[in-house]
Amino acid sequence: MTESARPRRRRGRSRRRRQLRRALLAALVVGSLLLLTGGWVGFRGWQARAHLLNAAGLARELSAQVVGGDTARAQRTLAALQEQSGSARAATGDPGWWVGRHTPYAGDNLAAVRQISVAIDDLARQAFPPLLRADLTSLVPAGGRLDVGRLRTLSAELARVNATVQGARDSLATVPTEGLVGQVRQALGDLRGEIDRLAGLTAAASEATRVLPGLLGADGPRTYLVVSQNPAELRATGGMIGAYAVIHAADGRVRMGRQGTSSTLGRFQPPLKVPAEVRSLWADLPGIYPADVNLTPHFPTAAALYREMFRRRTGTTVDGVLAVDPVVLSYLLRATGPVMVPGGVPLAAEKVVQTVLSDSYQRMDNEEQDAFFAASAAAVFDALVTKNVDPKALLSSFDRAVTERRILFWSARHEEQRKIGDSRLAGALPEKDTVPTVGVFLNDGSGAKLGYYLRPSATLAVGDCRPDGRRELRLRVTLRSSAPKSGLSESVLGLGLAGDPYTVRTLVSVHSPAGGAVLAARLDGVETAVGSGTERRRQVSTANVEVGPGGSRTLEVTVLTATTGVGTAELWLTPTATPWTTQVVSAPSCDQ
Questions:
Q1: What stretch of H or E contains 322?
Q2: What are the helix (H) ranges across 423-495?
Q3: C-beta separation of 288 from 268 below 8 A
Q4: Strands 531-535 and 538-547
Q5: Who's near 524: CB < 8 A, 6+ residues apart?
């Protein structure tokens, strides 16, 4: 080795030693910072945990007090909640916590605690104070009239409150529970339950105050058709339209006008114009018979057809159509208490569905039953506008009925209908999905009133991700009949189109998610023929399912989504006399 080579080797070793020292120094600095940060986060974590547990308990307590109307206690609880939620937010928002959130293992847990803290503090400062100030009695008639001026004042504030509550609920829904401290996990579960209840209240109040003033004649008199859907003879939106009533609204005061039955409107020849997609599925039936306008699940189509039929027969042009069913009456009776129908028949929440859809058919013919339903609806309506009704009970009933799509409304005024949009109240089958939605819609094929005895259930399971970005969904629909083998009246058995008059024939239409497809169908494990078509960018397959007394049939359908990354799906079902039993089985999200 030359003399000149030795200094180069010494300089190389020296350079590597300096690099090693710098690396060790950097490691010591980083390690020290991590130790310091970990200690700080641990200390702050215990602080946050204490504040968070206190805040979660107070938020649950406050939510229950708001829903229960205990304003005085709620004000005191709110002050304590804001102190605890602010402290929890501060403890989880400093730089040390931020660093901790981006470390392996502990990071997800720290991020979850941060989300919980922010959600509770947002509720405490943005939602609860205006909600406590809001006078919900504006949503209940006084002396037969709603104060539309107060409704409009309340509307803007409730919209902001509702946005905050829904945002908090959505945020809490994304918080993973795995790995959380037991007490925090329990507090989160309890908090989610209370926020769900509160979200239902604020959504119903916000929706009502947004659309009610105009609908109640604040800008001029209005006239509406209220139609009763009879789930004893199923149609896609809930049931055959039997009775109707005209109601008049002016400056918040509502009165009932003429009443009648759909049968008095007769049949229409030539048929009214029906959308081409609906005609391909149901021929001209929705344009001929008032009882068939809602073979389609898209309520705006059904309502517009019924309005035109009513105009042609009576000369009266209404501003909109409102649909309800007997189950809605049962919910409203919980708010009003029992009422009497002319003729001395008492209606109570626990018995009204059985009274209207079963008992009355044993002693009345079809027209008498429709008239009885109209009288029942009128009696409940009169109680709503004349009795002192608890606004929270009324809102709770309204929210449940809208959530189950048992109250549907369509406005003939385009701008109002646009405001209602794709909400459940509109009953509109959307042409786009945010989450893949499968529709299961039932239409009676028996010509009878046996739908009262159906006991439906549905399970929807999300399958694996496909290379093309779509997912298969596996739908399982079971229809069980609780009908007896004998003893029903002729008005219940009707035409008996299934052959055996006690057999329920149901046309089950499965609508794919928007942009999706229906791939295959099996009835009781055997491939079955289905009718097919499309409606509003959804492929439709319809199967004939006949169920004898005490029997059950199961329809299994494989459905394909459009391109989606989400691992969940939703069901949209025809409201039935007995609510569906449902389950949606989610899967991990796809990587996009």
A1: strand 320-324
A2: 490-493
A3: yes
A4: antiparallel
A5: 553, 554
Radius of gyration of the chain (CA): 30
| CB 475 within 8 Å of CB 463 | no
Half-sphere exposure of 26 (CA within 13 A, CB side): 6
Residues with Cβ within 8 Å of 544's Cβ and at least 6 positions away in sequence, in order, are: 445, 505, 506, 507, 508
> What is the per-residue pLDDT across 8-48, written as a single tens digit (0 to 9) for each?
555 555 555 554 444 333 333 333 333 333 333 443 455 55
Whether the CB-CB separation of 562 and 471 falls below 8 Å is answered with no
Distance CA 113, CA 106 (A): 11
Q: How many residues can be counted in the chain?
A: 592
Determine contact, residues 525/550, Cβ cutoff 8 Å.
no
Omega before 270 within 30 of 0, i.e. cis: yes
- For tokens 């391109």, what's the residue? 563
The C-alpha atoms of residue 54 and residue 405 are separated, in whole angstroms, by: 38
Classify residue 202 by its DSSP letter: H
What the block records as the tokens of 395 is 């809102």
Pairing of the two strands 222-230 and 320-324: parallel
Say if CB 303 and CB 323 are below 8 A apart. yes
What is the predicted pLDDT for the residue at 373?
Answer: 81
Tell me which residue has tokens 């209207």.
356
Please say whether the dihedral angle defined by the alpha carbons of residues 200, 203, 206 and 208, taken in this order, is positive or negative. Answer: negative
* Element counts in the chain: helices (H) and strands (E): 16, 18
Counting beta carbons within 10 angstroms of the beta carbon of residue 123, is it exposed (0 to 12), middle (13 to 18) or buried (19 or more)?
A: buried
Q: Which residues of the chain have pLDDT under 50?
A: 3-5, 19-44, 592
173 phi/psi in degrees, rounded to 5: -65, -25
CB 428 within 8 A of CB 572: no
pLDDT of res. 159:
87
Find all residues with CB under 8 Å of 531, minimum gap 6, and list them: 281, 541, 542
Q: Report the C-alpha gap between 211 and 393 in whole angstroms.
A: 20
Name the pTM for this structure: 0.79
Give the number of C-alpha atoms closer than 13 A to the C-alpha of residue 298, restricted to the C-beta side.
19
The one-character DSSP state at 142 is: B
- The DSSP bridge partners found for residue 504 are 547
Pairing of strands 454-465, 581-585: parallel
SS (H, E, C) 514-532: CCCEEEEEEECCEECCCEE
Q: Residue 157 CB: number of other CB atoms within 10 A? A: 15
Strand bridging mode 345-347 / 538-547:
unpaired
436 neighbors 569 (Cβ within 8 angstroms): yes
Residue 315: count of CB within 10 angstroms of its CB: 7
DSSP 65-116: HHHHT-HHHHHHHHHHHHHHHHHHHHHTSSHHHHHHHTSTTHHHHHHHHHHH
Could you tell me how far CA 140 lies from the centroid of its own chain?
23
Collapsed DSSP state (helix, strand, coil) of residue 448:
coil
Q: Which distant-in-sequence residues (6+ apart) come within 8 Å of 293 by Cβ?
A: 241, 286, 301, 302, 303, 305, 306, 309
